[in-house]
Fold this protein.
Amino acid sequence: MNILQITAIGLITTLLVIIVKQQRPDIAMMISLAAGSVIFILLLGNIKTIVSSVENMAQKANLDSIYITTVLKVIGIAYIAEFGSQICKDSGEGAIASKIELGGKILIMVLALPILTALLEAVLKILP
Amino acid sequence: MNVDLIFKIAAIGLVIAIINIVLQKAGREEIAMMTTLAGIVIVLLMVINLINQLFQSVKSIFKLY
């Protein structure tokens, strides 16, 4: 899945969005939504290899798997939240976009809490 | 593989716009409104399928259960 294909899809879709935006702005928004998801689906294979290699490295360093899965979850949440908020911003709905980002931040914070507490306990143990 | 979906959506959008204008010239505003809604529903179904596929794959990769 080379970069040429991705850029070509992006440019052609932008042109289509501009054409359709004059008459039907709602369908233009759906075209950009579809383009975003198509490009991501095309990149899935590469992301899968990256994620599996990161997991192998973590297993070799016999890290606790809870940390790696949490990091992956945070990345997933961040990506989806950014994807949604960017689409909303493009179609002019800044308020909804910020709400989506707020949701993403809170969910990531919830995910990070157990690690933060574990870190705190570790630090407190070290201190005399 | 589903790159042509984008072009289908754009084509539907343009066809709806044209049909809308033609019907309005012919004096049938209500039918124009209905065809516009029908077109938007079709496009929405196609996009929702694509988004569902995207979210399923993101969930499987990032283990976001």
In short: Residues 29-62 of chain B form the longest helix (34 residues). The mean pLDDT of chain B is 91. Helices of chain B lie at 4-25, 29-62.
